[in-house]
Design a protein that fits this description.
- This protein has a two-stranded antiparallel sheet with strand order 1-2.
- Helices cover 54% and strands 2% of the residues.
- It has one domain.
- It contains twelve helices and two strands; from the N terminus they run αααααββααααααα.
- A hairpin with a 2-residue loop joins strand 1 and strand 2.
């Protein structure tokens, strides 16, 4: 299939599906509740970190965590002690993720807020416009957030240097960097052209069918290969079609693609 034909079909799908009316059920919907960027960053990291498993359980788990953090998570966390957070999330469980892991993630967020002022400022600390993708800055960002884990179980923050496709983190970056009718954006100093496709099972299957990859392993290498193919279609925004394409795997009222 030629890139020109794929681009035409993708653009048709984008204009059909890229609307907030098609967002539910998706953890992205939680971000719309936070007008302040610093709160949206925290909510987005939590929502994307828990974005695995059945979507109904994802929404339930994200809602339960964000409820405890109040209307302004970025204001709540710096004043919340680790002991208090442990008490709040003692009974939390989302598939492989325990309440302890949520507390450790929040401890990492607290540390970043204290040191950099915001999650966005931390990410920008190592972001370089000359890099082909955001991979170097993503790696450094995860390293900063992961410090409280200190070798303990960590199902929330996959490490790019270990080959993970980092679907959840790349989803978070799509939400924070892109700005259109669906993605709220806010990180306007990061170029959308540097984003990496959030590689889930549905996107992987589509990419194989389109001939964007032959790899059956959903690794970072595969995600980068697929991203390069999407960049041939849209050099400035290779992740542009991610939301529309994944609707067909989330909603049963969307056309198959």
């Amino acid at each position: 299939m030629s890139y020109s034909l794929v681009k035409r079909q993708l653009n048709e799908l984008y204009h059909l599906c890229n609307s907030r009316r098609w967002v539910h059920p998706d953890p992205l919907e939680f971000l719309y509740q936070y007008p302040a960027l610093e709160d949206r960053e925290v909510a987005g990291l939590i929502a994307s970190s828990l974005a695995y498993g059945r979507v109904t359980q994802i929404l339930k788990s994200v809602a339960s965590v964000l409820k405890e953090l109040g209307q302004s998570p970025s204001a709540f966390l710096p004043s919340a002690s680790d002991r208090f957070l442990c008490e709040i999330f003692a009974g939390f469980r989302h598939r492989f993720t325990s309440g302890e892991e949520v507390v450790l993630l929040l401890a990492g967020v607290k540390r970043v807020l204290d040191q950099y002022g915001s999650l966005g400022a931390c990410f920008l600390e190592t972001y370089r416009s000359c890099d082909e993708t955001i991979l170097p800055s993503l790696t450094a960002f995860v390293d900063e957030l992961s410090l409280p884990f200190e070798g303990r179980s960590n199902s929330l923050l996959p490490r790019p240097q270990k080959g993970s496709a980092c679907k959840k983190l790349n989803l978070f970056l799509r939400w924070m960097v892109r700005e259109d009718r669906v993605d709220p954006g806010g990180w306007d100093r990061v170029a959308p052209s540097k984003l990496i496709i959030p590689l889930d099972t549905h996107m992987h299957r589509i990419a194989i069918r389109l001939g964007f990859t032959k790899s059956r392993c959903p690794t970072m290498k595969t995600a980068l290969e697929i991203t390069r193919a999407f960049r041939e279609i849209d050099p400035y925004d290779p992740v542009r079609y991610d939301f529309a394409l994944t609707r067909t795997g989330i909603r049963n009222d969307m056309p198959e693609w």
